[in-house]
Amino acid sequence: MKIAVVGAGVTGLTLSAGFAELGHTVRCVDGDSGKIAQLSQGIVPYREPGLESLVLRNVAAGRLGFGNEPSGVLNEAELLFIAVGTPADERGDMSLASLWKVIDRIEAWPDDGRKRLIAISSTVPVGTAERTESRLRGRLTGRCEAEVVSIPEFMREGRAVRDFFEPTRIVIGAVSAEAADRLTQLHRRLPGPIVTTDRRSAELAKLAANACLAVKISFANEMAAFAEQVGADYPSVAQSLGLDPRIGPYFLEAGLGFGGSSMPRDTHALVRMADDAGAPQTLVEAAVRANAMLPLRMVRKLEAALSDPGRRKVALLGLACKPGTDDMRDAPSLRLIAELNRRHPGIALTAYDPEAGAVARKILPASVAICESAEEALRGADAAIVVTGWSEFRQIQAEDFKSWMSRPIIMDGRNVLDAAGLNAQGVVCIGVGRLPSIPGPSSRKAGELAL
After folding, report:
1. How far apart are CA 379 and CA 318, in angstroms?
2. What is the model's pLDDT at position 111?
3. pLDDT higher than threshold 70 for residue 440
4. Would you give the distance in Å from CA 428 to the centre of its chain?
5. 94: which DSSP letter?
6. Residue 138 burial (CB < 10 Å; 0-12/13-18/19+)?
7. What is the Cα–Cα distance from 144 to 177, expressed in whole angstroms?
8. In 200-270, where do the E strands start and end?
9. What are phi and psi for residue 150, nearest 5 degrees?
10. Could you give phi then psi for residue 190, rounded to 5 degrees?
11. What is the secondary structure of 35-55 as a DSSP string?
12. Average pLDDT of 349-356?
């Protein structure tokens, strides 16, 4: 096929390069001329594993190109993917401004007998495909034949390329059997099962997926807090839960909660949409509230372990919303930093992230010192908080913590460190939902140590 993709973010660029790799001719367009200029020069402005090499390989093969104007490529394209951003507006609803801008710039296709398909991959409210088709036909009555379909993307940050080529499922929401068949053929070389359904169900499938994961993550964190209070070991509980095939092992880790560009936005938007539809999503709403409380819970642990934090230096290990990306949109680190500064205005914060340092310098307050290494961030610190579970942090030895830090107190917000091993070597390491293995009276709970 000849395909056009509007939106050169991680999602749109992965779709573009992925379909080019499958042998299609793809033109990726975006209104950001600076981004298009970078891509045209072979510069991929994202930290996404495997994406740069995939893009460059298909550009070199002549299957992938870039441009600024969507109207200029539509005459040749049989299929238009829309992968523009739909950020939350002031009310928490998804903004469709970028989507409407694309639709309103589409001109009539040549009358060559081919039915064009417009596939919305952006995460959108239920009913958007129908509204889009109505808006398009209202502008181009009698001048083109097009069907708007919904193909939500399920790619994860840090795994986008892998998720494109190894999808867990491909959801196609279409009206006509012809459109469903053409899109099934488009994806035939990908191994995931294909679910064909109506457009509204496809749109809700994406929102429901993120809402379900949010509920599962918040459940894990609530259960970890309970485990701490009753002296149980949540990682052992999670292992037991994960062995139950009705539950599964994924997204049961306790920590600082979810963040990023999708899950917080999608859960907030779903709650609002459901309220408007008269079907309140009380479980999802509770999960959102529980997630918002996690930074405060971590700060209270720090307060229990470190006297007068407002006069101390605290290092943050990790800032990105998850390992494998430099994305800090709605990252837990932002809420944690805000909570630390609110409760302890005099606190000195240093931070290090293997990928997100450049992003952090642009968005964090100047009072947070962004460092070039974990050692630099930890030097002279009275305590440290592991915020993002980068594997690099597992390589830090007990002797490193003791020699670099003023006081080797580690709050492991992602349970990535060997807490028992560190504690045995004189480093105080307090995890999330873990049994305390802190030197001292065996009756002491994890939140009762103050140094």
Report:
1. 16
2. 66
3. no
4. 31
5. B
6. exposed
7. 19
8. none
9. -115, 120
10. -95, 145
11. HHHHHHTT---S--TTHHHHH
12. 97
Name 208's Cβ contacts closer than 8 Å, sequence gap at least 6: 270
Give me the chain's average pLDDT, please: 92
Q: Which two tokens stand for residue 384?
A: 């440290």
Residue type, 316: L
Tokens 């870039």 identify what position? 66
Q: Is the pLDDT reported for residue 413 higher than 90?
A: yes
Q: Which residues pair with 349 in a beta bridge?
A: 314, 368
Q: Which pair of structure tokens corresponds to residue 401?
A: 């913590």
- Taking the C-alpha atoms of residue 266 and residue 154, their distance in angstroms, rounded to an integer, is 13
| Amino acid 212: pLDDT | 97
Instruction: Determine the number of helices (DSSP H) and then strands (DSSP E) in the chain.
Output: 17, 14
Q: Which residue has the tokens 């700060």?
A: 299
CA dist 282 and 275 (Å) reads: 10
Q: Looking at 344-392, list the stretches that DSSP marks H as alpha helix, in order from N- to C-terminal side.
A: 357-363, 374-378
Strand partners, 211: none
Distance between CA atoms of residues 196 and 198, nearest Å: 7
Identify the H or E element spanning 369.
Answer: strand 368-370
Q: How far apart are CA 328 and CA 82, in angstroms?
A: 24
Q: Are 188 and 22 in contact (CB under 8 A)?
A: no
Q: Report the amino acid identity of residue 152.
A: P
The mean pLDDT of 344-348, rounded to a whole number, is 96
Structure tokens at 5: 């993709």
Give yes or no for a contact between 316 and 337, defined as CB atoms under 8 angstroms apart. yes
- Which residues, in sequence order, are CB contacts of 68 under 8 Å at separation 6+? 29, 30, 31, 33, 36
- For residue 143, is pLDDT > 90? no
Number of residues assigned to the chain: 451
Domains in the chain: ranges and CATH: 2-197 (3.40.50.720), 198-451 (3.40.50.720)
**pLDDT at residue 141, as a whole number:** 64
**Is residue 192 helix, strand or coil?**
coil
Helix H or strand E encompassing 118: strand 116-120
Are the CB atoms for 341 and 299 separated by under 8 Å?
no
> Measured between alpha carbons, how far is 223 from 225 in angstroms, rounded to an integer?
5
